[in-house]
Amino acid sequence: MIKWLELDGAESEVVISSRIRLARNFSGYNFTNKLKPEEAESIIKEVENAIIYGTSAIRDDFKSLRMAEIDKLEKGILLEKHLISRDIAKSELSAALVKDDETVSIMVNEEDHIRIQALFPGFRLDDAWDIADKIDDLLEERVGYAFDERLGYLTACPTNVGTGMRASIMMHLPALVELGYIDGVLKAANQIGLAVRGIYGEGSQAKGSIFQISNQLTLGRKEEEILGNIKGLSKQLISKELEARSFLHKNHGMKFEDKIYRSLGILKSARTIDSNEAMNLLSNVKLGIEMGLIDDMKSREIDKLFIEIQPAHQQSMSGQNKAQERDVKRAEYLRKELSQNINEDKEV
Amino acid sequence: MIKWLELDGAESEVVISSRIRLARNFSGYNFTNKLKPEEAESIIKEVENAIIYGTSAIRDDFKSLRMAEIDKLEKGILLEKHLISRDIAKSELSAALVKDDETVSIMVNEEDHIRIQALFPGFRLDDAWDIADKIDDLLEERVGYAFDERLGYLTACPTNVGTGMRASIMMHLPALVELGYIDGVLKAANQIGLAVRGIYGEGSQAKGSIFQISNQLTLGRKEEEILGNIKGLSKQLISKELEARSFLHKNHGMKFEDKIYRSLGILKSARTIDSNEAMNLLSNVKLGIEMGLIDDMKSREIDKLFIEIQPAHQQSMSGQNKAQERDVKRAEYLRKELSQNINEDKEV
Questions:
Q1: pTM of the prediction?
Q2: Residues of chain B contacting A248 with CB distance shorter than 8 Å
Q3: Architecture of the domain whose range is B21-162
Q4: DSSP string, B226-259
Q5: Sign (positive or negative) of CA dihedral B288, B294, B298, B302
Q6: Each residue of A104-160: pLDDT tens digit?
Q7: Contact A163, A273 (CB under 8 A)
Q8: Which residues of chain B lie closer than 8 angstroms to A266, CB-CB?
């Protein structure tokens, strides 16, 4: 189960999720690359005290996961759910404090001492900012942050100095990819200090046509200004993508529908399928749902499948750790999930 | 409806149909290329008198179709059902006497004055020979055949002289194609005086992996000898094809099943499909049925679809004569037919 995906999302026909990440460091310690094990442990304890063992109203909502104590498979699942980063998964001296509903994850001793992440389904960047900001305030009351009056928050990597904030929107842009507009979008975003990147592969090769819009600059701008820029570009992208979808449907109607229904047909019948192919077929099905061509499934169900068909989730569900066997189990899982949706709807 | 396909067939897991064609000419007329219109008409009348207007037991089973009187679409359908040839469809001075159950078609004024064809589903070459031979005897009693004591039956083209017989077996050889053995089979057959040809395209490019085994020689051999050779090679091919299927299933089980189920998934979901792609996907589904992977459809239903998805049948059913619109109607037809089969079986 992917809890954060169960929440309400807004404008989810193009936007999959919204995320805020704040990088913070303690003033009394070296950055993590020069941290001794006992210092690393002490930082984890300080964060746990502030969040879990303190008197805060949210203390019961969090659990602390020590990376040294959980196995590779569990880390893989947290990673695929976007709750931890690849870097922290490799570290033995780090922890993640994860909120019950999975909307907040506080990574300790990643590249920075603290990385606060807030993640919501749909176009909910303000909600993500609100909760990340609250957690940040709560921590700032109890621990000493490394902060410079002129520069702002100090971070291990200079690209994060200032606000320490990375805001991002995950979007599904299949029509812009199909029409070959995506590389232009990527370049244009770059020119206004934003980055558009494929989540699962770069540029027009991005699997599932899933992209992330995020700020490149953290310094010299206020948080609200950065958020405004990202929301502005996201709204433009939403409208461009919707235009491109209408164009495709109007001008290539039958070919367009054919591609969508064939994708669903293959997903519902394949006996073996790798995650890349499944991502791309699911992307077509998601588009079909959003365009009203497929009306017995929900777009959010496909977002869930995007995550669940990844290798660690598949291994956890099926117990298969060989790629070949996982492909068979993945096909089985997709057949089951996609027929279930239809049956459920038929009963309604 | 394709009546001849409704009859019983034997060993139909590889053999689709068996056919005998006898070429005969009248002694009192020029060959068709030098025939005047009134002579052509007179030949048609002689055949009609012998078969339809005579006292024969079968006279009520036949109807005579004058090629000048039926439209292009109807000719196309007879052609796709394998009841007339491409040559006769182009001629205005010819006719086809077709038996009600479509197992026998007597073409008049094709390349020869008379071509008797008998066609059965499955491996029933002897049945086809029996009925063609009986029709031949019946005609020979009433009309004067061009016959030479030394050469046998005289025909317009020297390649048919002698028995005037072309016997053929239509086979589905997808596993031999898949394993790349088909070109070798084609050459080997050639060396023993038999020809193996793709029905819808040549060699390994044959659409739907459907091939016809037939004799190349008609002279200097008795009918029984020719039939024996063809049956012998056919039996070998059946056993080679079945071996190849087992090999594929044993060694590429999951990939093999995946291809079959995906083919069915695409056929059941496509919104537009041309006849070539449909032929190849149906061929995979037919293989799946014959291997017991798909148990809610019948192989003969696929044989029927092979014919029904051809352009003239599609045009007749849908009224669409533009290729693009036919592709849409074909996809619609396939979805309907393939879901029907499943529902019918679920009720059993």
A1: 0.84
A2: none
A3: 2-Layer Sandwich (3.30)
A4: HHHHHHHHHHHHHHHHHHHHHHHHHHSHHHHHHH
A5: negative
A6: 999 999 999 999 999 999 999 999 999 999 999 999 988 899 999 999 999 999 889
A7: no
A8: 262, 265-266, 269
